[in-house]
């Protein structure tokens, strides 16, 4: 099945849009008329440019305010159509989108509109053009695809068909299964767009908040299932109006768009296997079982400070790589690698970002299957030669420049610690940490949708609702993504003076800002951390006075929390305790958490207090590091 994207969906000049769309792997483009009109290219030149990029023009759009008009408006509409058809002949495309009229003079009446389209079909046929009718969600008389189909059905012209747009159907909460009754050969084109669930004016919502399938809350999968059930075999195209995308990097947005189309088509074929989805076979999404290790890239000069922090957190050196300057630090089920290699990807990561989390290894049911799925969803493969006897571990580039490695329980990959590492003596008891609870990743806010799409496409993962986190210097938006034993909090910074914004700026885009470790007894862990010199983040007394009253906590428990700088949150049936390290000079920090009952969150209510405490503990912006 051919994939397409409207030029209005991404930023840049027309030439830049074409390059980004072609690089992302699309088959074609919808030319949004304004993009053509604003360029200096002739129609013939535009058509040639498109073809030179290996693309085709799948649709020319939009043609507005056509049907149901009285004269002289009607005559003018047909004159405009004739000019557009001549232009399309020069461009080299044969399909135009006519969106339902919002003209104040437009008159209702299915038969009147059908007669207009029958006449337009005759004019289009003389130019070798096909006409597609789309119901705008805010159309004056037609705002439902069922009414648009009735107009097309009564027009009964081979050059007139229906165009469907998921936003216009789902935005109005129309049952997408009503599409199943439409003959597939009468559907000329299908546009897909998702959107967050926001109660606002339909036109404003559409013009500013659309996003890629899988990035929002609309049932785009259900919509596409209904479309495919009709036997439709034409292009699937993205028409995305989004302020962030139109200010973003063209190639990033285009790549996300292509990934989203592959992802939604894959969901359709797995939800309804009898549908004829034209997509190569690749493995289904699987949930991550656990985070097996986290690897830091650093230098011999900076490694001692990192290792000192690990030791203070209760980790002990447990081994070293057989051929590389990589040490293993372990506590319970948490494994942390410190890599001081002076070449390759690790060294490049350190040079670019400073001491940074460069790799995350995930235990999955089938490493090769997950790797194959990641590549099918457009992830970039990562290969690195291993010496004889060492494991070849499948890997791909994650978002933010890090590497995701994949391990499983097979005979080879399950033996990473005995094959690739030489063990030291058994580590000491530690501070009671049992594993990695979650990973906090920080990025510019306008990249958040891209990061969430990456994880939810490749893994069997779910998104939590987005929450606002108040920083004294601005707002940070946070969203959690979970796939089995992998929990990630995505924190999008808009203001550069926020703690998250400073981290992105000062590390030149390092992705992981904090790691949260799990414990079964946070107070026992806190006591052991204090003995080891853990640089605990000091929380102000005002917080504890408030939390005691807010939750009605026992005074003795609050006293223990205050003494250990432990924060608290709860949900129905569950409780959550957390404490933090003071941040490193670059803004990176550790978190220790204890979950009780069915608490599923991340202590979002405490984030503002944590950020304020972290800012009190760090140097002022612009001050040089020690």
From TrEMBL:
Listed GO MF terms: 3-dehydroshikimate dehydratase activity; metal ion binding
Catalytic activity: 3-dehydroshikimate = 3,4-dihydroxybenzoate + H2O
Residues noted as binding Mg(2+) in the record, renumbered to the chain: 438, 514, 591
InterPro entries: DSD, Glyas_Bleomycin-R_OHBP_Dase, Glyas_Fos-R_dOase_dom, IolE/XylAMocC-like, VOC_core, Xyl_isomerase-like_sf, Xyl_isomerase-like_TIM-brl
EC number: 4.2.1.118
Domain VOC: 435-582
SUPFAM superfamilies from the UniProt entry: Glyoxalase/Bleomycin resistance protein/Dihydroxybiphenyl dioxygenase, Xylose isomerase-like
Superkingdom to which the source organism belongs: Bacteria
Pfam families per UniProt: AP_endonuc_2, Glyoxalase, Glyoxalase_5
UniProt function note: Catalyzes the conversion of 3-dehydroshikimate to protocatechuate (3,4-dihydroxybenzoate), a common intermediate of quinate and shikimate degradation pathways.
PANTHER family according to UniProt: HYDROXYPYRUVATE ISOMERASE, XYLOSE ISOMERASE-LIKE TIM BARREL DOMAIN-CONTAINING PROTEIN
The protein's name: 3-dehydroshikimate dehydratase
Organism: Frigidibacter albus
């Amino acid at each position: 099945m051919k994939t397409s994207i409207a030029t209005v969906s991404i930023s840049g000049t027309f030439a830049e849009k074409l390059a980004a769309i072609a690089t992302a792997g699309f088959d074609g483009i919808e030319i949004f008329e304004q993009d053509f009109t604003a360029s200096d290219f002739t129609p013939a030149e535009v058509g040639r440019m498109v073809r030179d990029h290996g693309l085709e023009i799948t649709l020319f759009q939009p043609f507005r305010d056509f049907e149901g008009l009285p004269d002289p408006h009607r005559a003018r509409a047909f004159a405009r159509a004739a000019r557009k058809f001549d232009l399309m002949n020069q461009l080299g495309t044969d399909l135009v989108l006519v969106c339902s009229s919002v003209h104040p003079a437009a008159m209702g009446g299915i038969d009147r509109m059908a007669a207009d389209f029958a006449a337009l079909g005759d004019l289009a046929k003389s130019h070798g053009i096909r006409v597609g009718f789309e119901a705008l969600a805010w159309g004056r008389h037609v705002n439902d695809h069922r009414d648009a189909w009735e107009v097309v059905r009564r027009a009964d012209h081979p050059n007139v068909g229906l165009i469907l747009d998921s936003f216009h159907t789902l935005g109005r909460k129309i049952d997408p299964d009503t599409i199943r009754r439409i003959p597939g050969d009468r559907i000329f084109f299908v546009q897909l767009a998702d959107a967050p669930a926001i109660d606002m004016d339909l036109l404003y919502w559409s013009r500013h908040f659309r996003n890629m399938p899988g990035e929002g809350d609309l049932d785009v999968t259900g919509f596409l299932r209904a479309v495919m059930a009709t036997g439709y075999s034409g292009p699937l195209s993205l028409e995305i109006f989004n302020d962030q995308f139109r200010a973003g990097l063209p190639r990033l947005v285009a790549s996300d768009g292509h990934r989203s189309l592959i992802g939604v088509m894959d969901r359709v074929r797995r939800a309804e296997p009898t549908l004829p989805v034209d997509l190569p076979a690749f493995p289904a999404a699987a949930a991550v079982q656990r985070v097996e290790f986290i690897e830091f890239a650093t230098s011999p000069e900076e490694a001692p400070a990192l290792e000192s922090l690990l030791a203070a957190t209760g980790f002990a050196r447990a081994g070293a790589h057989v051929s590389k300057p990589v040490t293993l630090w372990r506590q319970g089920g948490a494994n942390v690698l410190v890599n001081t290699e002076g070449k390759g990807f690790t060294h490049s990561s350190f040079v670019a970002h400073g001491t940074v989390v460069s790799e995350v290894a995930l235990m999955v049911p089938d490493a090769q299957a997950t790797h194959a799925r990641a590549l099918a969803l457009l992830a970039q493969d990562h290969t690195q030669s291993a010496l004889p006897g060492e494991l070849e571990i499948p890997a791909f580039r994650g978002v933010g420049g890090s590497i995701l490695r994949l391990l499983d329980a097979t005979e080879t990959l399950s033996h990473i610690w005995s094959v690739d590492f030489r063990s030291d003596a058994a580590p000491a008891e530690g501070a009671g940490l049992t594993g990695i609870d979650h990973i906090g990743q920080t990025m510019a806010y306008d990249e958040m949708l891209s990061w969430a799409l990456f994880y939810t496409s490749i893994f069997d993962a779910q998104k939590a609702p987005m929450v606002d986190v108040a920083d004294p210097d601005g707002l940070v938006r946070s969203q959690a993504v979970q796939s089995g034993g992998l929990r990630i909090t995505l924190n999008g910074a808009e203001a550069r003076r926020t703690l998250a914004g400073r981290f992105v700026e000062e590390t030149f885009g390092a992705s992981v800002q904090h790691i949260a470790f799990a414990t079964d007894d946070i107070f026992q862990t806190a006591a052991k951390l204090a003995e080891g010199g853990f640089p605990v983040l000091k929380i102000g007394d005002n917080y504890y006075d408030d939390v005691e009253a807010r939750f009605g906590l026992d005074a003795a428990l609050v006293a223990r929390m205050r003494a250990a700088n432990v924060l608290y949150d709860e949900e129905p049936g569950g409780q959550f305790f957390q404490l933090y390290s003071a941040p490193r000079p670059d803004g990176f920090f550790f978190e220790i958490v204890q979950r009780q009952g069915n608490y599923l969150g991340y202590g979002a209510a405490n984030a503002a207090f944590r950020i304020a405490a972290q800012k009190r503990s760090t140097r002022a912006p612009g001050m040089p590091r020690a």
